[in-house]
Design goal:
Blueprint: H1 2-23, E1 26-27, H2 37-47, H3 65-77, E2 81-85, H4 88-103, E3 107-109, H5 115-119, H6 123-128, E4 131-133, H7 144-149, E5 156-160, H8 173-185, E6 189-194, H9 201-204, H10 208-212, E7 217-221, E8 232-236, H11 238-250, H12 259-296, E9 303-305, E10 313-318, H13 322-336, E11 338-339, E12 354-359, H14 369-383
Parallel strand pairs: 1-11, 3-4, 3-5, 5-6, 6-7
Antiparallel strand pairs: 2-8, 7-8, 9-10, 10-12
Helix pairs in contact: 3-12, 4-11, 12-14, 13-14
Length: 386
């Protein structure tokens, strides 16, 4: 009885947060659930004609608009072929399984903060028989030296670009190319977990195709940066992608129809992809304004990670309990209509330290640095600082 009551309370809190965020007049970003279901469906139907023929035949088992999306992704990444997947988890399971069959080595080297290690319930080992090893535990991607000196062989090196749980961090271009070369010298293939690869262009100063060309295979997401409903793509050599299609079927990923998700992905490529550099540039201004506000507000300790964002997302760390910070953030949203921060978390951090993720998208472009500082000062006042 008590457990049910607690679950109901948590659900009520979730619904309350969502209602408050939806009602905010100013946000740094609008999340996928910030718009009601009917509004999203209406917008998708109204905009579909920009990327496909609304009078055309819906897809069946991956043809039609899904096939067009695959061709578009392969073209953007400069790779021979691409395969659509309903989830990134499945796409990467299949990618690393295919490479294990081809290399004869089922060991995958990746960061312990990588998404498969942190957020997929050990799926690599439980589902695909893969074994993972960690060349480094530092909150950054492995260096060339760490790859070259690692004590045991591995068949594939998986690099998450950017490394989300470490703060959406990226290496410098020269560092990345050296790390890839070190893996090649060990006869390992290289796979990019590029769920957020789309926004790496600014940091690397290279086009998408040049970045993707470093890897043997690349996974990209359609909802994390592009605002799609769901879905992912795996791109690489044509013969490997043909093998991936077979495994996609075995994993249950060959869906009968997927046109809503595919259309939303094409719209994301058309609309959001060209805007991402402006989001990255403005995220740097937002981060600088937050830093100024925290200094001016007398915060005893804080950290923006990284101090200058590598993408349009970054972490903010403060020395207070998550409940205190979240209550202040939600109160600010509800009473002023301004949402600066959303959820705060303590897991993975030191006692008394909490972290939130900040994203800047088209909604955030409306904020001036002065407005960010004002919102941060109001937030600190509600926390009890300054």
């Amino acid at each position: 009885m008590n457990e049910t009551a607690t679950e109901e309370t948590e659900e009520e809190r979730r619904r309350h947060r969502l209602a408050v965020w939806r009602g905010s007049r100013r946000l740094l970003w609008r999340g996928p659930v910030d718009r009601p279901l009917g509004e999203r469906l209406t917008a998708l139907a109204a905009d579909a004609g920009q990327v496909c023929d609304p009078d055309g035949t819906p897809d069946l088992y991956g043809d039609g608009v899904v096939g067009e999306l695959e061709r578009r992704v392969a073209e953007l990444l400069g790779l021979p072929a691409a395969v659509y997947f309903p989830t990134g988890t499945m796409a990467q399971q299949v990618a690393l399984r295919c490479w294990a069959e081809r290399t004869g080595n089922a060991t995958v080297a990746l960061h312990p903060m990588a998404h498969p290690e942190r957020h997929e319930r050990g799926a690599f080992g439980a589902v695909s028989g893969l074994r993972t090893v960690h060349p480094t535990r530092e909150p950054r991607l492995p260096t060339a030296e760490e790859i070259a000196d690692f004590e045991e062989p591995f068949g594939a090196l998986m690099l998450e670009l950017p490394l989300r749980d470490a703060g959406f961090v990226l290496p410098e271009w020269d560092e990345l190319t050296k790390t890839v070369s070190a893996a090649r010298e060990r006869d390992a293939v290289v796979h990019f977990d590029g769920a957020r690869l789309w926004e790496c262009v600014t940091h690397f100063g290279r086009p998408l195709a040049e970045i993707a060309s470093l890897a043997d295979s690349v996974y990209v997401s359609f909802y994390k940066s592009l605002g799609g409903l769901s879905g992912a793509a795996l791109a690489g050599p044509a013969e490997v992608m043909a093998q991936a299609r077979a495994w996609r079927h075995r994993y249950g990923g060959l869906l009968f129809q997927q046109y809503p998700a595919a259309v939303s992905a094409l719209l994301g490529l058309e609309r959001e992809l060209p805007r991402l550099p402006s989001y990255v540039a403005h995220a740097k201004r937002v981060a600088a304004a937050l830093t100024d506000a925290f200094h001016e507000g007398g915060v005893p300790w804080f950290r923006l990670n990284p101090p200058v964002p590598h993408t349009h997302q970054f972490q903010v760390w403060l020395p207070y309990e998550a409940e205190v910070l979240e209550r202040a953030a939600l109160g600010q949203s509800e009473e002023t209509g301004v949402t600066l921060f959303r959820r705060w978390f303590t897991e993975g951090g030191a006692p008394g330290m909490s972290v939130t993720e900040v994203t800047v998208d088209s909604a955030g472009l409306e904020w001036t640095p002065g407005e960010v500082r004002e919102a941060a000062a109001e937030f600190l006042r509600r926390v009890g600082i300054g």
